Amino acid sequence: MIAFDLNEHKIHHIHLIGIGGISMSAIAEVLLSHGYHVSGSDIKDSKLLDKLRNHGADIFIGHAKENIKNPDLVVYSAAIREFNPERIQAKELGIPQVDRAEMLGQIMKRYQKAVAVAGSHGKTTTTSLLSLLMEYADLDPTILVGGELDNIGGNIKIGKSQHFITEACEYVESFLKFFPFIGIILNIDEDHLDYYKDIDHIKNAFRKFARLIPKEGFLIACNDDPQVRDIYEDASCNLVTYGIETVADFMATGIVFNEEGHPSFKVTYKGTSFGDFCLSVPGLHNVYNALAAIAASHILGINPRTTEKNIHRYKGIHRRFDVLGEVKGARVIDDYAHHPVEIKATLEAAMQYPHKKIWAIFQPHTFSRTKALLKDFAKAFDAADHIIITDIYAAREPDDGEVTSKKLVELMDPNLNALYMEGFEHIADYIYRNLQPGDLVLTMGAGDVYRIAEALLNKME
Fold it and tell me: What Pfam family is a match for this entry (predicted)?
């Protein structure tokens, strides 16, 4: 564990391995804004790296021991293993090393009002939505979000106040290195089973996360999720609940959807009217995300009328039900959904959207997740009219041959119109040939499945 103060500068030069990642690049920008000499490496170039170069970072493409130019501290992302040549070189030179989560936690300690958004699903959307509510209420927060948010011009915004907000990922229990004043737990589900043994192991991690919040702080928890209800009583801080079906402090009632699937609803707080809210993003799952953000905005002292007025200004984030364009009169949408629960929620949102037929193109993400949740994935696509499953995106894992996309398709109901197909251009060609005006094409996954949507749109140029 490092003892790090952004303002002390006892450490001068910080090197980040995997600096091009969405979270690592945000950390680098925070460090640059506080006057640190920042260097870093990644396997490929990107717009995020160009932005860091423009702010003064030294960027290396590719990992090599020569990239270690005597930094005072090395920070590495979760994807960087101990046999990385830069980590080996840092160890040989006696340079301290910390992982991304520890560094982010140390940065978080500087802020009196730090908000950490945790949960198996919805972290990026809720973080983005609450970030904008804070921004529009002139709280001037520092924002770190796991996606590209147009309203702040990217994945980070440096504020000048004591307010800070970030996602809190449960993978390898990394969020236990954080220091939240307000912690949000959206839901708890089986995921990351390459690390966690079972749901009880996952719940125990969230239980520890809740205990991180100081006595004077706040835990905001979804009362409709039984797994969340099981763990929140162990927290010693103030508890604020929200929900739709189960009695909670903040509740949404009278939910209606417009022609684009955008919900409007009334909110009560402890049984008293709190306001009428309209969202500009589709789906019932976003009502839950909005309730969490509304509860947090209240705790942060934002006037309910200000929240009510501004919440519709959130138009979504890249790769979250992201409407990319039209092909042959059909709408093309991309979404990050990579878990069975997320796929069902995204397809439910698509059902509310104008369409004739729904094309669901899914790229499974990691072999371990696909294997562990194979039966759940097979049951997640019932709302789609056409289903195409691509090859599994390996991410951080080797292929042990035990699970394939073909096996997933074989497990699906034979009455579903499901196909396994390989090759993104081949898939785009197939969709283009069979697409009808009024159809909705939905690419889903945490890998590079969005390239199919891009290839499809390019056919119109």
Answer: Mur_ligase_M
- Which listed residue (86, 124, 142, 344) is catalytic? 124
Q: How many CB atoms lie within 10 A of CB 136?
A: 18
Is 121 among the annotated ligand-binding positions? Answer: yes
Q: Among residues 29, 86, 135, 167, which one is catalytic?
A: 167
Q: Examine the residue annotation and report whether 328 is marked as an active-site residue of this protein.
A: no
122 annotated among ligand-binding-site residues: yes
**Paired tokens of 430:** 């197939």
- Has 173 been annotated as catalytic? no
Q: What pLDDT, in 10s, does the model give residues 242-272?
A: 999 999 999 999 999 998 889 999 999 999 9
More confidently predicted of 171 and 90: 90
**Across residues 397-426, what is the average pLDDT?**
92
Q: What's the distance, CA 99 to chain centroid?
A: 19
Q: What tokens does 231 get? A: 């763990």
Q: What is the pLDDT of residue 260?
A: 86
Average pLDDT over residues 194-218: 94
Q: Where in the chain is the domain with CATH 3.90.190.20?
A: 322-458
Alpha-carbon span 210 to 195, nearest angstrom? 20
Q: Where in the chain is the domain with CATH 3.40.50.720?
A: 13-98
Is 306 annotated in some ligand binding site? no
> Is 4 a residue whose pLDDT tops 80?
no
Identify the pLDDT of residue 1: 61
pTM of the model: 0.87
Q: Check whether 9 has a pLDDT greater than 80.
A: no
- Annotated ligand binding at 125? The verdict is yes
CATH architecture of residue range(s) 13-98? 3-Layer(aba) Sandwich (3.40)
At the top level of CATH, which class does the domain 322-458 belong to?
alpha beta
Asked if 167 is an active-site residue, the reply is yes
111-313: CATH, from 3.40.1190.10, 3.30.360.10, 3.40.190.80, 2.60.40.10: 3.40.1190.10
